[in-house]
Amino acid sequence: MSPLGRIGRALLAFALVVVAGTAGYLILGFGAEDALYQTVTTITTVGFREVHPLTGVGQLFTMILILAGVGTALYMFGVLLEALIEGHLRQHMERRRMDRRISRMTGHIIICGWGRVGTASAQYLDTLGREIVVIDRDPERLRDLEHPTVIGDVTDDRTLEAAGIAKAHALISALDTDADNVYVTLSSRALRPDLIIIARARNEGSMSKLMRAGANRVVNPQLIGGRRMGSFALQPHVAEFFDVVMHDDSLDYRMEEITVDPTSPWVGHALAQMRLQETSGALFLAIRAVSGQFIANPAPNIYLEAGTILIALGTPDELHAARRHVNP
Questions:
Q1: Among candidates 251, 227, 234, 228, which has minimal Cα distance to 319?
Q2: Cα separation, 276 vs 239, whole angstroms
Q3: How far apart are CA 297 and CA 299, in angstroms?
Q4: Rounded Cα gap, residues 153 and 141, in angstroms
Q5: What's the rounded Cα separation, in Å, for the pair 256 and 105?
Q6: Cβ atoms of residues 134 and 151 within 8 Å
Q7: How far is it, in rounded angstroms, from Cα 122 to Cα 132?
Q8: H/E/C letters for each residue in 146-166?
Q9: Res 256: pLDDT
Q10: CA-CA distance, 37 to 25, in Å (whole number)?
């Protein structure tokens, strides 16, 4: 039983003894106020005088009440003292506050596994101002973490539900083993068919399994790290430019994607008619068509469809203006 449950049980037992004692003295002929006063002084062993002289039956009832009441009172005070000394009550209240905070979140990112990959993902998302919920089974890893946390086995659906998966925008599965990542991907996809799931793969052979399990994207940190090292060896300035644009929060410009909504006034119009760069100042780099094909430096006569993704480069103000221009 939880600490709060034990405290509630002890208080209930003490209240029942008080009610039973008061009822007993009422039967013995005491007034309501005198009966309650006699019960409290008897249970607490204060030792004040008897309100009314007791008969033999009254004395027997009082002895039984003393034994039951003192035992109940000692149990209640012991439970309270244990909760205060060991910090159970404080931990429980902190957990309740954390649960309420998570329940109010919408569009947050769930990170499963607080290792090196999970930490790096959280740091990047934090620079973008996104809300994050971290799940890990090791309480020591989550100690003093600023983000909301859930301690538990992430392969358990109840743990994912406690992290607010019903209202989350995306989930990053960064656990240590590919088997755990596959299981989490399957569970998350079953709970939220529309959830964006990014899964980590330690082995290249697991990437196809994670995709079949329902992951939208699968990332192999070793593979990406090796390719980046190769890029730095051959084209260091290009590689560094993309690193700076995507990950350096000290710069003013960013690269972002803008999806053309079905309600956008530019659906069915040519790209040139939108005049994105002239109206917002953002540099238009590429589009991703609804078919999934990337088109770099697209021709001005390409017509836009609902769901087309525009990739633009600019300052936060320019990108904000571009988003408002595409989807007023």
A1: 251
A2: 27
A3: 7
A4: 14
A5: 23
A6: no
A7: 7
A8: CCCEEECCCCCHHHHHHCCHH
A9: 86
A10: 10
CATH 1.10.287.70 matches 3-86: yes
Q: What are 126-167's pLDDT values in tens digits?
A: 888 899 999 999 988 888 888 999 998 888 899 999 999 999
Domain ranges of the chain: 3-86, 106-219, 252-326
pLDDT tens for 184-226 read: 999 999 999 999 999 999 888 899 999 999 999 999 988 888 9
β-strands 132-136, 109-112 pairing: parallel
Fold adopted by 252-326: Alpha-Beta Plaits (3.30.70)
Alpha helices in 203-258 (DSSP H): 205-213, 221-234, 236-247
Q: What does the pLDDT look like over 266-278, one tens digit per residue?
A: 999 998 888 888 8
pLDDT of residue 249: 62
CA distance 226 to 239: 13
- Average of per-residue pLDDT across 4-21: 84
Average pLDDT, whole number, for the chain?
A: 86
Q: Which residue has the tokens 């909301």?
A: 148
Rounded (to 5) percent helix, strand, coil in the chain: 55, 15, 35
Tokens of 157: 């659906």
Nearest Cα residue to 147 out of 110, 186, 192, 107: 110
Nearest Cα residue to 258 out of 195, 219, 314? 314
* pTM of structure: 0.64
Please give the pLDDT value at position 113.
93
Instruction: Provide CB contacts within 8 A for 51, sequence distance 6+.
Output: 30, 34, 37, 38
Q: Which residue has the tokens 């609804």?
A: 290
Residue 75 to residue 112: CA distance in whole angstroms? 41
* Residues in CB range of 275: below 8 A, 6 or more apart: none
Residue type, 56: G
CB 296 within 8 A of CB 288: no
- Tell me yes or no: is domain 106-219 CATH 3.40.50.720: yes
